[in-house]
Every structure is written in structure tokens, then in C-alpha cells.
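Review box. Two proteins, two foldings.
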Amino acid sequence: MGTTRKTESSCLPRREFIRNAATLAVAAGLSPAVMLGCQATSSGSDAFNNSDAMDQALEMLTGLEPFANHGPMAAEALVSLGRVDSIVPFVNTYKKRFSSPYPTPYQAVTSANWREALGDERRVADWANFFNRELKESAWPIVLNRWSERLAPGLAAAAAHGLIRTAHATRSLSAKETDLRLRELAEGLSYWAAYYEELPENPNVTGVRLKASEAIKRVPLVPVAKRRGGSVTNGLRAVNEFAPFAAVSNIVETTGQPEKVISELTEAFATAYLKNVVPGNLIVLLHAVTCTSGLRSLLPYLSPSAAQRMVHYGWLVGAALYSIGALGQTNESIQEQEIKRDDLIERAVATKEEHAIKFTEACLREYSHNSNAIYLQAARDALERIPSV
């Protein structure tokens, strides 16, 4: 059982942490300001003032099978939306879906054998143990930067849920460091590593680099007859059997400001969602948005090289989700009307459905960085389609 660290109530340990973090930052090639995760702010950060419910949620979710466990992610999204009052009721309902226990250790992951353990689903508990040790030995921003760069090529892990869970854990830690939140970061990274899966890439021999809004027009769609059913994870494997996809792996310009590139990616995928969504592909298309939006939460803690690497692979995963989900059609234009943030939040919370909550929060987060109404329209559309629990 985790206990809250006393970093907020003891000045001397806090000063020591800041000094140590600054030292580690220099060693990692990061700015000291970037390393001070406990002082970081993000969209909706005011909601964290009364966020003890987040730790309560993590305690309640302890021991659940990690695969497809959206509980911690949705709980953190509720914190960001300013609805901490809804966290415990949501978790109480959500955890009833799980009957399988947390997996037992299989074979220990170490600093010597971690590469051979990538993508081995049997070792998810071993990966969690490994990252828990890493987080005891180094400050969490150091661990996050190191492993984000290493794991970036496998960003497709569990339909990008490894990244998304890591991103929610990072934002939670940036507000308050506790043992439970550190453990949740270890869970996110272990999910990413155990389900690690690379997508096909080809060098960009033409040298063409496009903005995401133009690049997405060149993404070839996997023929419907060749698409795989079942989970999104299984669906993504069809991309590995679809040779034309690799040609678009490096056509997005990612050398600019990462924050701006992320906005371009999320805007392109939110637009693609609205143009292509039908009852059968909603979950696939919305993950292209939540995946690329999740990059934003990691960005303050990444070195420049890790940030550019993550943005590149964020495009690759988003494009792959689009390739297996889009139908190449254009839905009717959405009528312009006022969409209020509070209304979207109320509707998302009322669904008690994890995708509705996470997608709404991601769209509102991106809207706060890029005031394009496409995000609000996408959130509203999804809330009309996703059934309440």
C-alpha cells in the first residue's frame, strides 16, 4: 500500500530534491526547470489542488489486470477536468469489470536483458518491478526521459495505451509526487515495454516534409478486406502486412517546435475523426487523437532529441490508426453552433465511460493550446455516439 511522500511538508527534503534534480538535469542534457516535475503546470492544473481523490483511486485500482485497464487514465482525466468529486464513484463502477488478477512475475527484467524482454507480454509484472526499482534509484523525470527515448519506436504498444497511461501518470506526478503516483508511472512504462510493437518505416528518399494536415492525405488506407477484427492492437498488425504504409512514415515535418507539431497532429487527427467516423471505427479514430495529445504531457520532461523522436513516432502511430480505421469518406459538415466546455464536461462525466472521459479531456486540452473548434466538435460528436455505462 502506497503512502504519500512528505515532499510538500518538509522544506529541507524539498530543497534537496530540487538541488538533486537540477544536477541530474545537467547530466541528462535537460534544463533544471524542466526537471522540477513537482512544480510543473498543465491544462486544468488548478483542479489538482484537491486531488487526494487521485491517490484514493490508484489505491482502489491496485491489483487489476493491466491490459485494457483505463481506470487510472480516466481518473486522472477527471482530475484535469476539475471533477475530482466524480473519481471515486467512477472507479467503484469501473473496477467491477475486472475479474482476472494482476499477472505474476515470469522472468526478471534487468539492465542487462531488457532489450530481449521488449514486447514479451508474459513479463509485464517483471517490467513493473524493474521500473519500480528504476524510480527508486533515479528521479522520475530522469527515468521518464531515458525510457521514452528507448521505447519510442514501440509507441504502438497496446494501441498506444502504454504511452497514454504513461502520459496521464506523468501529469499526475507533475502536480504531486506520491508513492502511488510513482507506482502508476511504473505501470504505464511496463505496459508500454511489455506490449512494445514497432510499425514499418522506410527512409524518406524524396526528402518531402509536410504538415500533418497535408501528410494525412497521403496515408494509404488498409483495404477493408485485409483489416483485422478484434482489438485495436490486433488491428494495427494489419499495417505490418500492408507494404504501401511505410512510404508515409517519415513525411511529416517534426523538426520544428514540438508543441506546435503536436497541435498540428492532434488537429489533423481530430479532423480525420469527424470526416470518417461511423459506428464501427470510433474507438480506433479517437485513439489517434488521445495518443498524439498524450505526447504533450511528456514533453516538459524530454530532452530535445527524445522529444523529436517521440513526435515522429506519434505521427507514425496516429497514421497507422487512421490507415486501419478511416474509410476515405467525408461525413456531412457539422453545423456551426456554440459548444460550451462545461457542457462537454458534464456530458462526459455523466456517461461514466472511460473513452468518453479521456477523449473529451484530450480535446479540451488541445483546444486550450490551439483554439480550433474542430476539437470541440469532435468531443461533442463522440459524446453523442459513445453509450453511457
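Next protein.
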Amino acid sequence: MKGKLFLVIVVTLVVGSLLIPSAISASDTNVQTSETLAQKSAQAWLDVTAPRIPDLPQWSGAKVIAKQQYHDLKGDVNAYLFAITNENAIVGFVTVGNTAYEYTFFEASEVAPPSEPTVAEIIAAIGRLGLDTTEVRIEEPIDFIYTGTGGFYAVYKIGEKNIAINLIQKTATPVADLKYILPSPEEYREMKRILKETEPVTRSSGYAVLSLSYYQPGGGWCGPCSGVSIGRYYRDVQGYSYLYSNSTMYSTLYDTMDVIGGVTWPASNYGWGFVEMTLYCGYENFDYTTDEWVSSGNFWDAVDFIDSGWPIGLCIVSDFHWRAIRGYGYLTEMDIYNIYCTDSAALSDYYIIGWSNWCLNARLAKITD
């Protein structure tokens, strides 16, 4: 059987200016115009992408409708989230940037848009921060913040503190501790330039998706969950028939990845933990080998890996949440470059991320034979 590659990608932290959000300075007319342009961009992305994902027939002919504006850590609008609707049903969401980002695609999912947490979820989340919850009064959120991939937050005033609740994972973080990983508009434009310059002359457009789906054994940790998604792909699709069953693989990876407090550390534990699990199953051709720093140009390396049938593990350091990359899509004439993930936190087979939203200064580690 041909050799396998397994990638671990970790995005470096970019800590932004931490200020209490201020009011939007643009006029209502300008805000409406920007949102309209953002909606047109989101619809154009959906129209191009939907025909290329046959697993999502509900996106065919679907429309996007306005849902929520998000701000950066300075209080300025940086992203627009739209619900994807079809026949009066919500079948996903898509997020695009503001005018400074040329309304570029950021991320999308087949699941419903991130929802505000319940009072019980807020109480539980802030309790895990060690805050006293006995006399907490929960009111409406005072802001919505977007920090980059998966970083959708509603901000609540809890006593004297501004606490951000992640709308996907329902975890709490003081606003002062949020990590801003979205590249600046200038960095985004530079990344797009690199993507174009490094595009192989033999490619003009392309989409590929591996037979991979998310795994979650009910509240399971994301490191072993994404590891099972990748492991069962090798077992069921690539012929590694002696790999464990899903539940046994999960419990084994939980141990071999040294999950501590729910966290699987990237280069040191995730890759070696997967290799150790495969050794237990009698396979000696997986080997964790090296780390290297990558940039936008390495999108084409990821394309080659997926074309070779090799899934990829992705961890965004801002939330230490693991996802399994299952494919890619790019359409040069529309400046669209994105990757397809499974996401155990969102219970989503298709969590789609714009390459320029997360790849800058990423760390890459390989497992190969």
C-alpha cells in the first residue's frame, strides 16, 4: 500500500488591541450598503460552491439572508454572518469579511448559524472560569465579536467583567484574553497575492473531497474525535482493516494523545498519539517526522496531499479545537480558496474555511512512512 501523510497545522496567535467595543461610526446608509455587498458576495460563493458538493443537495438553489454583524476587538465591523435557507428551512451559514477584506469568504457550515447561549449555558461557562455565579444577572449581549475561524462570540456584562461566550463551543473567556487570529486586511491581500503567484501552471480550478466525516461519542474531546475521523477513513476507505473500532480508537487516542483537561497539544502529542495507536493495531508505516513554518503558498501542498488521499489534522490555537481537513476547493477567477473540514464541536461534516482566514504563519507537521 502506498505511503500515507498526516498533517498537523497550528495557527500562530495574533494578539490584537483589547478595547471595550465602541459604536459603529459609519452611517446607517453605509452600513446597509456594506451589508448588501457582503450578502451578494456570500450568495456568489454559495452559488459557485453548492454544485461542487453533491453531499449537500440542500444548498442547491439556496439563498442567504442577513443574520448578524460581528466586530473586531476595537469595536469595528469586520465580518457578516448570513443564514443559508432553502424552502423556508435553515440549512447552514456563511461568513464573509467587511469592505477592507473585499467581502471575501471566511467560513461556512452545513449546520444552523451559531446561536446565543441559554442562561444555563452562560452560567455553566462562567462557572468554569471560577467566577461566582450565585447572584449573576444575565441580560442581553452587549456585543458580538469575530476573532477568526470558529471565533464567534457574544459578550455579556458579568459584574464588572466583559465575558465572551463562544457561540459554537459555549465556553467563556474574558474579553481581555481573546486571541485575534484573523489576519489584517493588508496581510489578507498579501496572502492572496502569494496564492496566485504560487499556483501551479497546470491548475486553473479544482475541488476534491475525501470520504471523511466527524466523530463525537457524546461530549467527546476534539483531539481524539478528529483522530477517529481520520483513523476510520484509513480503516474503511484506504484498507487499514486492523485499525480499532470507532469507540476503541477514541479511548485509545484519548490515552496516547495525553488529553489533559480536554486539551490535546499539537506537535508533541497529537501526531505521536496517532502513530502510537496505529502501532497497537500492527501498522509500522506511520511516522511523525518534522515541523516547518508555512505560508499561503503551501495551500498547493495541501491540495497535493488531499489529491493523494491523505487527510489533515487542523488545530486553531486560539480555541485549541481540532478539526480534520477532508478536502479543498479553489476557483481562481473568483479568488476563492477554501478547505473542507469535519468539526466535532459543531457536529458538522462540512465546515468550510477560507484559506486566507487561518493559514498565515501556520506550523506544519507530517506523518509519513
